[in-house]
Write a structure and sequence with these properties.
Mean pLDDT: 84
Helix content: 10-25%
Largest sheet: 6 strands, antiparallel
Strand order of the largest sheet: 1-2-6-5-4-3
Strand content: 35-45%
Radius of gyration: 29 Å
Shape: rod-shaped
Oligomer: single chain
Distance between the termini: 28 Å
């Protein structure tokens, strides 16, 4: 986790003292000036922390594993006193209280949506000096669904159930599916095969359908073989088949 990494050995006072030499504390509280890359939550929290502890903006130690958005502040206060003043200044925006691990501490802070959006770390540089780090909470990117065998990466597909209301999809077993549009001859498709059957003839699809073992995964471009048209919509596409239409969001593996 980000907090665990930041509270590791690199946050020990000796390491910080060597990297970021203490700067003279300002005579009065000064709001931190942050770079354009700093997001709104981190910027707001950094300014509040700076005012609370009369913080002075310093370069973040290179040993710290922080993002480009991180803001580091030097305060000429003992760590315990700085933590108390920061907690008071943040009020209900803070999530609970400081979690102290040895001499260092961490505090989660909510964003405007009420979710954890930033955190503050504290580490003593000396008995009366503290380094405070404000950074964004990292959210892991959602994993893309695993691509079933046979799909072409980067191409849009639809699940058979997405077409309810315009195409009737029936599983025939063995990876075969019958697709029927009102007023049209049914089309029988097989997972992994570009050639489909309609009546006594064959139809070549632009891409082979696939299956995840339960659902038909049909290429969006193959809907033309069913006599359907596809048009862009604000969210996804609109599929029109025989006068009936449905809005769907294609899957791109």
């Amino acid at each position: 986790m980000v907090l665990a990494a930041l509270l590791a050995a690199s946050l020990l006072p000796g390491a910080l003292a060597q990297t970021a030499a203490p700067a003279p504390a300002p005579a009065k509280a000064t709001a931190a000036t942050v770079s354009p890359v700093t997001d709104r939550t981190v910027s707001g929290v950094a300014i509040a922390v700076s005012r609370a502890v009369s913080g002075q903006l310093v370069s973040c130690p290179s040993k710290l594993k922080v993002s480009r958005q991180a803001v580091c502040l030097y305060s000429k206060q003992a760590a315990a006193q700085a933590r108390t003043q920061v907690r008071t200044a943040l009020g209900s925006q803070a999530v609970g209280d400081w979690k102290v691990n040895g001499q260092s501490g961490s505090l989660l802070v909510k964003d405007t949506a009420g979710k954890p959006g930033a955190y503050v770390l504290s580490a003593p540089l000396s008995a009366n000096e503290t380094l405070l780090i404000v950074d964004a909470v990292s959210v892991p990117a959602a994993a893309k669904p695993a691509a079933p065998a046979g799909v072409v990466k980067g191409q849009p597909y639809l699940l058979g159930k997405d077409l309810i209301g315009v195409v009737n999809v029936v599983s025939l077993g063995g990876g075969k599916y019958r697709m029927n549009v009102a007023g049209e001859t049914p089309l029988t498709v097989t997972a992994g095969q570009k050639t489909a059957q309609r009546g006594n003839g064959n139809v070549d699809l632009p891409l082979a359908p696939a299956s995840d073992g339960k659902n038909l995964i049909f290429p969006l471009s193959g809907l033309r073989a069913l006599g359907c048209t596809v048009s862009d919509a604000p969210k996804g596409v609109t599929v029109d088949c025989g006068g009936d239409s449905v809005g769907v969001l294609p899957i791109v593996f």
